[in-house]
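task queued by scheduler; priority normal; single chain, no ligands, no partner chains; default sampling; output format set to structure tokens
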Amino acid sequence: MSLSAVIVVALAAIFASIIGGVAGYGTGLLMPLVLVPILGAQVVVPILGVSGVFNNLSRIAAFRHAIAWSHVWRVTLVAMPFCYIGAMGYSFLTGPGASILIGATLVLLVPARRLLKSFQKDLSPTMVLLAGALFGLVTGGVPGGGVILISLLMAVGVKGPAIVATDAVISLLVGFVKIGTFQIYGQLPASSWAIAALIGLASLPGAFLAKWIAENISLKVHHGLMDGAVVLGGVVLVLRGLGLT
């Protein structure tokens, strides 16, 4: 990457990590909008899988006293095998196919977040397990699986800082499966590790800045702005994958 591209990616990583620290999700939704035009679609999910380790570790450090460990193990164990399936499937996509998949997923996850919110009080134990499996499958193959995980944690009664903390631990553990799968299938060359390290290191301060921002911004306004940006970016990625832009 050129120096200007490195600066853009680093600034985007800082911003996305702050958003993720405030809302508990957002990093996987926003970073593809910056990375795909610079790096191409096929490498984005593996790179975000590695950089997510840094981001989640910083959130764990910032909110470590609020982790709901019982929910960590319940969701993680069911999500891990499905994460492997999702990551394996992604490894066989071409560049245009990856662009279409990422773009379509970003667009669909915006209304999905609102739909999942309406079901939060109606989840049975079986539905919780199914939601955990869906999270694993989505997070293995595309960015933005945090939307499902946050909705699931809210449905089982996790609140406040515990949502961010518990989401970070689950995402970290499941992320190790994703990274291992991509490494096995040759999707993480040395250059991807270097870019992931850049993104991860740039994102480290974000969780701590998010603690201050969370007390001074309306989440409703924040969600509205982010939804608009994600839908627009997702549409552009789909059109690019179809060769229309």
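post-processing summary
- The mean pLDDT is 79.
- Residues 3-241 form one domain.
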